[in-house]
Structure formats: structure tokens, C-alpha cells
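A reminder from the course coordinator: this example appears on the midterm review sheet, so study it carefully.

Given structure:
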């Protein structure tokens, strides 16, 4: 399974570097985050918010495993 790629977090320029940016919340450079939610700090506001959305979406998705199981009343 491919992990989602998160690049929509607020970023700010790292002053000491010409082309370097970091998460505006946890201050971790984008080159370290590399689009992965788990690469933000554990207490990062963005990571916390996105994790809640991911959990909510998982609860809302229909689970098809039950429907894929063979049932006794099916005819072969």
C-alpha cells in the first residue's frame, strides 16, 4: 500500500538558507518531512489534525471483507 503524500502543510522559509523551507508548526525542514505525515514532530498541529482526518475517513469507509466471504446460502 502506498502512503499518502502530504505537502499541503503551512511552510515557512528557513532564514539561514536560500531555498530551504520547514513546517510552520513543528519547524522540521521539508527535506526531512519528505511528504510523510509521520516525519512531522509527534506534537505537530498539522500532524495531529491530519491524523484525526485519516482516522475519521477510515471509520467512514465501507468494509467489504464481510461481503467477500462465501455464504452458506449461496449456490455453487
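Designed residues:
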Amino acid at each position: 500500500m502506498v502512503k499518502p503524500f502530504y505537502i499541503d502543510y503551512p511552510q515557512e522559509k528557513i532564514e539561514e538558507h536560500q531555498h530551504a523551507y520547514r513546517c510552520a508548526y513543528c519547524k522540521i525542514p521539508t527535506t526531512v518531512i519528505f511528504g510523510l505525515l509521520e516525519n512531522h514532530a509527534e506534537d505537530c498541529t498539522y500532524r495531529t489534525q491530519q491524523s484525526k482526518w485519516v482516522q475519521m475517513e477510515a471509520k467512514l469507509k465501507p468494509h467489504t471483507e464481510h461481503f467477500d466471504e462465501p455464504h452458506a446460502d449461496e449456490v455453487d
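The longest strand covers residues 11-13. The chain has a mean pLDDT of 86.
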